[in-house]
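Table 4 source record.
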Amino acid sequence: MIPGLSSRRRFSDLSEQEILALAISSEEDDARIYRTFAQRVREDYPGSAAVFEGMAQDEDGHRRQLIELHRKRFGEVIPLIRREHVSGYYARHPVWLVENLGLERMRGEAEGMERAAEEFYRNAAKRTSDADTRRLLGDLAAAEARHIESAGTLAERHLANEVRQGEDRTARRKFILTWVQPGLAGLMDGSVSTLAPVFATAFATQDTHTTFIVGLAASIGAGISMGFTEAASDDGQISGRGSPVKRGLASGVMTALGGLGHALPYLIPDFWTATVTAIVVVFFELWAIVWIQNRFMETPFLRATVQVVLGGALVFGAGALIGFG
């Protein structure tokens, strides 16, 4: 260990050899991150996997150049110094450890990694008065800038418009199957199925507290039931619908929210004020369902309107009749 590394060092206190060693270890880390990205997306997005693999190879090339420079100036032994040893050095957030990191997030992280490295080296070069250190930091900044340019070249080579569009369609499909479809099913179930018990209780008792308790219980119970049902129905391995935990969470949360939307107004003490507010909320809930169906599921607007609004009206009417009866 380098003397003094028991605590974080200031960048300004590093020697030129230590700065070079830090750059070498940083290049090694970034190459591993890019290869992790490539491995994660290779099956679904081969074009993007080729881009990440190419960026990793660029990092390997820069690392070899830095090692050769270190060998010429300082010899064979490279000091052991990494990002976490240096105060103020740019950090890499471990987002690559997330199993289901999205493709666009990976692309954004890759670009951000290169830009952060370039900016850090340029700012560090401005803060030093030593000519050799200043030149070294400037060279490192230029190397990071070339990384960004090479990433653009790689993207043009491996991500033709057709490939990029195909990958974007695949990513959108995964998003819809994992989040939108289960969430929409939950919102429809929570909004429509709880209409009858909530308004039946409301008109039968005209007691806002009782109505709220019934609505709360129905919403939470439906949310738990829908969440577990969705998660247990399909592990996503064959269907490609994504993580059952994510689907269950989307379905359960949206089911509960759909029911709570028209249960919460009954926290208002006045019965008719609460009821009118709840009816208005139901109106917006049903139109939100129509919009989601039309926007993400490509259901024709008129058909979605008839299905959702007519169904909701029938359930509401049934609840009202039962309550008045």
